[in-house]
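Usage example:
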Amino acid sequence: MALARAGEVVSNKQVLARDYIDGIPKESDMYLSTASTKLQVPEGSEAVLVKNLYLSCDPYMRGAKKPEPGRITFFAPNSPVVGYGVSKVLASGHPDFREGDLVWGITTWEEYSLITRTESLFKIHHTDVPLSYYTGILGMPGMTAYAGFYGICSPKKGDFVYISSAFGAVGQLVGQFAKLLGCYVVGSAGSKEKVEILKNKLGFDEAFNYKEEEDYDAALKRYFPQGIDIYFDNVGGKMLDAALLNMRLHGRIAVCGMISQYDLEEHQGVRNLMHLIYQRIRMEGFFVYDHYHLYPEFLETVLPYIRQGKIDYVEHITHGIETGPAALVGLFSGLNFGKSVVVLAQE
Amino acid sequence: MALARAGEVVSNKQVLARDYIDGIPKESDMYLSTASTKLQVPEGSEAVLVKNLYLSCDPYMRGAKKPEPGRITFFAPNSPVVGYGVSKVLASGHPDFREGDLVWGITTWEEYSLITRTESLFKIHHTDVPLSYYTGILGMPGMTAYAGFYGICSPKKGDFVYISSAFGAVGQLVGQFAKLLGCYVVGSAGSKEKVEILKNKLGFDEAFNYKEEEDYDAALKRYFPQGIDIYFDNVGGKMLDAALLNMRLHGRIAVCGMISQYDLEEHQGVRNLMHLIYQRIRMEGFFVYDHYHLYPEFLETVLPYIRQGKIDYVEHITHGIETGPAALVGLFSGLNFGKSVVVLAQE
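Running the assembly step on the lines above writes:
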């Protein structure tokens, strides 16, 4: 197939939302369609027209009953799903971008997107690593792990570190950062296979399958007889409650996500917050958006680790935009195996 | 009555616990007795023998089913209740203390105490302020307010500050510190009278009676239409849950106490912790014991405020050791009016 060129009119496969979505998306909330798109930027616009190469499935891609000011609307009636991706610029009305540039940032779930919010785009300068990494280890989840671990957790060598949802796009990196610093690291995940890879491939000291544990408190006491210095929380709810019981003096809890709570009508109550006082614990929520000024520093740190093989990264890759809805839904049900990426094209 | 002197044998009224207490004390958990005590320190001991002048009722004076390592046992079978107080040294085996010294720190609920844990005692050098203040504004609650507000809340001029249990020994000070810094300050308390004094005497911008509010979230939205920068939490539970819904971006929550939870079989679940992420909130528990190195700095700050009348302090004073049990119990039921102090003697 000949490569599409600026100015051409092409067929453009899309994943559209049927309506606003209240909470976690189901496959039936999305549908496939094909549009006809002219590969050019409207006269006078500072947008860029891109070809999407990789689309990213991320746990913040949940819907709201209606658009909320200041938050990204991922799902809107008959509009392409919004999400992070890696793309190639085919045409640009913006002085900072030109044809041929590779970028990562917020795009739309279709083969070709007109991106008006160019402020969310980062140019890709290093292509000796897999481009898909810019949806994960070198993109938003990577920055999340970096900012959350180094910026929020105040980690130091020898700390006892617990990571829930440790096999996710963020968790697997936090664990590896912690190991590189000399921490003792335990992760939890939702299958035997994930646990094995955490221990044998990603270098975690221990890992456990939370689905096999009836009593999270007992599980944590087994893996942390001395207690936990840092809890990197991706799940919230009962796991957070159990971790609170096991924190050490002056422990830190980075609240990155609460995936166990997202599809509940009412969130589970967390009852052990008195332990914040008993152990003088700092618990802090954060958003990666506040930390993007650290991106150059982050790249300088992480690129050498990747090139030297000191950090590994497991991706759940599916091929073709048609696989997008199932990949996204699988993220929330725990079916995906590592960072979820949908491949649309290689270049 | 002649003053008791070192070496004499005196009659010594005491408040004893009947047993270990599981949770909040009831009056029937304590009883009065009279011992005969020789006012001297055992040969070779580094203890001090004091006459107690003021005893302090504080919300951390709760019991445990059995002694726990590292925690003070306030109530033990047929032993005097343990608590903070202001005392005068009658005899000393410790080189740092001598007869006539005034001290504050951990003592026992009796007229005369032999204090072996002298490391908990602070010498009182400034006596131009009421001595009872060393159980409150100039003692442990004052240090708690100071360390919690300046150390944990990262306050700045113009911040919107909410304090629950604002009329308590700690809350009334936090509010006044915040006003002196130029914050907008709202407190909640449990009666119309307390609310009036918060507004009219202690300088709070607004105050409300939480017992008259069915919906704490609605109450907070009424007083903080722009949201809350700092929540100084003394109560936990539902109030904390409502505050979480009203925090501003990068808000801070100092977790000082959770008095609403202390007598519950199971603590109430807090459901709105996702707001830690939405608003990037830091929530931190603390203990005053970690901050006593700041005591000299604290005194330098607060003494001038008291002398210049810039800080006021409301005490709930009762007279005679017999009033101790009721005063302590009244603290938990919200019946007391300000910082609870039991006066035993003037000198």
